[in-house]
Design a protein that fits this description.
alpha/beta; Rossmann fold; Arc Repressor Mutant, subunit A; 2 domains; 6-stranded parallel sheet; 10 helices; 6 strands; about 10% strand; elongated; NreC/VraR/RcsB-like_REC; transcription; phosphoprotein
Length: about 200
């Protein structure tokens, strides 16, 4: 299923899959709400989804799909590649993140990979994530979060706010903020969402 608020993009993507024997476009939607409705009837195996759309954006749609149709794999296909967007999508559980300048062969391969349970990222995003997750050559190894910081990360991944983390771990909110500061430094990020995304990528949580 193709989900994009621009008709020309939907038509163009549909055309890119015409004649591909093992891939069939079963539906196309203009926004997240329409995509959720079509998912119930069309039952796609893979969704190619724009990130920024009216009514219900890509991440909001992914979260709803994950709850209602966990078997559906989602690949974000967007023009935006900043860290915040990538981190939000990864934290939401996408199977892929590609840019709209990807050649058709790359899109075909990505759909097949997602359908088989794999994950795919645009090459420039893979390079950036690798730089974030790996220490510079000759530099000190990246410090790993402590067991307590991992507990905080797990709660963040569940959507807990600072107050809820403090209550669950029987610590003060000030201590939670200190843990977050250390987590951000160790993972090389500057937001809660990015911290969760990197922790998931590194299989820390």
């Amino acid at each position: 299923m193709i989900v994009d608020d621009h008709p020309v993009v939907r038509d163009g993507l549909r055309g890119m899959f015409d004649g591909v024997p093992d891939i069939t476009v079963v539906a196309a939607a203009a926004d997240g709400r329409e995509a959720l409705a079509l998912a119930r009837s069309a039952r796609p195996g893979v969704v190619l989804m724009d990130l920024r759309m009216p009514v219900l954006d890509g991440v909001g749609t992914i979260e709803r799909l994950a709850a209602d149709h966990p078997e559906i794999r989602v690949i974000i296909l967007t023009t935006y590649d900043d860290d915040a967007d990538v981190s939000r999508a990864l934290a939401a559980g996408v199977s892929g993140y590609l840019l709209k300048d990807a050649p058709r062969e790359e899109l075909h391969a990505a759909v097949r990979t997602a359908a088989a349970g794999g994950r795919v990222l645009a090459p420039k995003i893979t390079t950036r994530l690798a730089a974030r997750l790996m220490p510079a050559p000759g530099g000190p190894p990246a410090a790993a979060p402590s067991p307590r910081e991992l507990e905080v990360l797990r709660l963040l991944a569940c959507g807990a706010a600072n107050k809820e983390v403090a209550r669950a771990l029987l610590i003060s909110e000030t201590t939670v903020k200190t843990h977050l500061k250390h987590i951000f430094a160790k993972l090389g990020v500057d937001s809660r969402t990015a911290a969760v995304a990197v922790a998931l990528e590194r299989r820390l949580i």
